[in-house]
Amino acid sequence: MDHFLYQNGILHAEDVPVPDIAAEVGTPFYVYSSATLERHYKLFDEALEGLDHLICYAMKANSNQAVLSLMARLGSGVDVVSGGEYRRAIAAGFPGDRIVFSGVGKTRAEMMLALQGGIRQFNVESEPEMRALSGVAQSLGTRAPITIRVNPDVDAKTHEKIATGKAENKFGIPISRARDVYGEAAMLPGLDVVGIDVHIGSQLTDLEPFEQAYTKVADLARILREDGHDIRRLDLGGGLGIPYERSNDAPPLPVEYGEVIKRTVGDLGCEVEIEPGRLIAGNAGLLVSDVIYVKSGEDRDFLILDAAMNDLIRPAMYGAYHDIVPIVEAPAGVALTPFDVVGPVCETGDTFTKGRSLPPLEAGDLVAFRSAGAYGAVMASEYNSRPLIPEVLVHGHQFAVIRRRPTFDEMINRDTIPEWLES
């Protein structure tokens, strides 16, 4: 469920008419619903009721400071994957003991930053990283709390570019080598081994891969405890999918996901962490765009928008689907027309969809891409010297710009011309 509904024929973000936002900030822009973000967080929290747990919002899905601040106020933890994200988390009000640091390529500088600023745990991905972290912690006279990410070789049945739990993926250590790696970790003086980490991919629409992975983690936890390790925390990752295409069957609900967790690891007495990102933020956002032209081609019609692949890269990168809807509701029973929906970037790849059946649209009409709150603004670029687009947060009848559109001068003036070209 989201809070983007038609009222009197006009699409609203909560209680704000979307055209009112467009008139003030210009198009294209992202708009997020506070109520949807809060609701989705609470669904996960309720799904794990009865377990000692922490919901750690995966910041990579949407890292706007206002969104992060809202999550921190709800009591969420946060999963970060870079020093920059760590700094964002601290600035948004997350205490160090609610920050989990993931990622395959943590640098020593990032390790030091987190150890000095406060950290709940590092999710370690390899033996070299483990040894480097121990050395950094020793140099600071402390011990780094860690889980070790194991790769369970489970096919998440998702897009190949967002699968992370198969043997050929770059993430984690093979679960078959876990006992040896944990044995080495226990000997390193700068580390405090607190648990196990696993994450098998993103946009999962089937619970069976979770069941397989978590069963393997439970078995490993029992073996490691027999080996003398104090396994007291399980980081089970994220990845639960959202319904991008409304006509398809809905993915499993958080409560069903919670039942899998309770069934597979609930008897271990461990604190459970999960790292949802997409399901919290995805359906909480729209990308709103203006129709520039309707163009007739040889065998198709094009809807040319002012939004482009640099604003929303998912269709070009993943072939991803987003529902596209008019801001002014189409009359019931109106005839639909197939359009290739494209942007103005000078790339054939700047195509959002082909042959999509849409109601009649004209230049100047507004459209919205649904389910654009995750992996939209965070993956945007300034390709073709197009400014990053504004982000807006809605709360009831109120809305605020939470990231403004930079000016062209600001973009250009970030570049520096060397002295030898100025003479």
Quick synopsis:
Helices cover 28% and strands 25% of the residues. With 423 residues, it is α/β, with parallel strands linked by helices.
The structural class is: alpha/beta
Main sheet characteristics: 9 strands, mixed
Indicate how many domains the architecture comprises.
2
Q: How many β strands by DSSP?
A: 21
CATH superfamily of the largest domain: Alanine racemase
Strand content: 15-25%
- DSSP helix fraction: 25-40%
| Shape call | globular
Query: How many H/I helices?
Result: 12
CATH first level of the largest domain: which class? Alpha Beta
Radius of gyration: 23 Å
Summarize this structure as a short list of keywords or feature phrases.
423 residues; alpha/beta; Lyase, Ornithine Decarboxylase, Chain A, domain 1; 2 domains; nine-stranded mixed sheet; 12 helices
Describe this structure in words.
This protein folds into two domains: 4-31 and 282-412, Lyase, Ornithine Decarboxylase, Chain A, domain 1; 103-274, Alanine racemase (TIM Barrel, Alpha-Beta Barrel). The protein contains twelve helices and 21 strands. The chain has helices spanning 18-25, 34-47, 65-73, 83-92, 108-117, 127-139, 178-187, 208-226, 254-265, 278-281, 314-318, 408-412; strands at residues 4-7, 10-13, 16-17, 29-33, 53-58, 77-80, 99-101, 121-124, 144-151, 173-174, 191-197, 233-235, 271-274, 285-296, 301-305, 324-326, 337-342, 351-358, 366-369, 391-395, 398-403. The strands form three sheets. Strands 4, 14, 15, 16, 17, 18, 19, 20 and 21 form a nine-stranded mixed sheet that branches. The protein is globular and about 70 Å long. Helix 8 (208-226) links the parallel strand 11 and strand 12 (233-235).
